[in-house]
Structures are given as C-alpha cells and as structure tokens.
Amino acid sequence: MSFVYNLLVVLHLLGMAALVGGWAAFAWRGHDTVELMAWGARAQLVTGLLLVGLAESVSSLGQDLNHTKIGVKLVVAIAALACIEIGRARGRRGGRSNRGLVMAAGGLGVLNVLVAALWS
Ligand code: HEM
User: What residue owns the CA closest to ligand 1's atom 12?
Assistant: First the structure.
C-alpha cells in the first residue's frame, strides 16, 4: 500500500508542477497554458483527497497528518481551481482567458506549496 501512497504523492507533485509551471509560462512568456493549469489544479484536489483518505484508513502507512494544515490546503486548492475554471470559461466564451483569475490561481498554487513545505 505504501507504493500506491508514494505513487499518489508523485501524481500530486506532477499536478503541482502543471499548475505552477503553467502559471509561470503564462505570466512571463504569454503562452496560453490555462488548460495545463486547469488539469494541474484538478489533479491536486483529487490526489490530495485520495492521499488523505489513504493516510487515515491504512494505519501501516504510519502517516500522522496535520488536519489544520490539510484543511487550509483544501480551501486554498478549491479557491485555485475555482479561479482557473472561471478564468478559462470566460476565455471560451470569446476572447482570452481572464488574466487576473489565471494569475490568482497560480499565486494560490504557490501559496499551497509554501503551506505544504513550511508548515510542519
Ligand atoms: C494547489 C494545491 C496543492 C499544492 C500546490 C500542494 C502541494 C504539495 C506538496 C509540494 C507536497 C509535498 C510536501 C512534502 O512532502 O513535504 C504535498 C503533499 C501532500 N498534500 Fe498537497 N498540495 C495541494 C493540495 C492538496 C489538497 C487539496 C490536499 C488534501 C485535501 C493535499 C494533501 C496532501 C497530503 C496528504 C500530502 C502528503 C503528506 C504531507 O506531506 O503533508 N494537498 N502537497
């Protein structure tokens, strides 16, 4: 089971790379990477929830999650996903994705990296 958990961590980190990497490309090079960011944000939510479910139900994994930290990450991840989905939908209706919302989604992704890494 620890292999499955570690695999989910890998997918979680790839989702983070898609969200934050897509944002960096969008911000600095003007490439439209909104689709990549949207998939990254969705992956973060799904893999994050699966990680929590597994950590809480399989005691042999030895994971002792900080629930306050997880709660904060969940709220920030939902906000990031909402921003990118709305920004993307506006782009689909004509014209370009909403730059402010896309930038906010990337910033929230970075905030979650900081929470994940610095909150012990
Ligand atoms: C934009 C959204 C997110 C980003 C950028 C993000 C980032 C990260 C990173 C960088 C790690 C590795 C940290 C380490 O191993 O020290 C991690 C681990 C983890 N994340 Fe996330 N995460 C996000 C959303 C979520 C959500 C929504 C949940 C659950 C509701 C979640 C649950 C977890 C868990 C359980 C781990 C492994 C245990 C831990 O180290 O705390 N994450 N996340």
Answer: 116
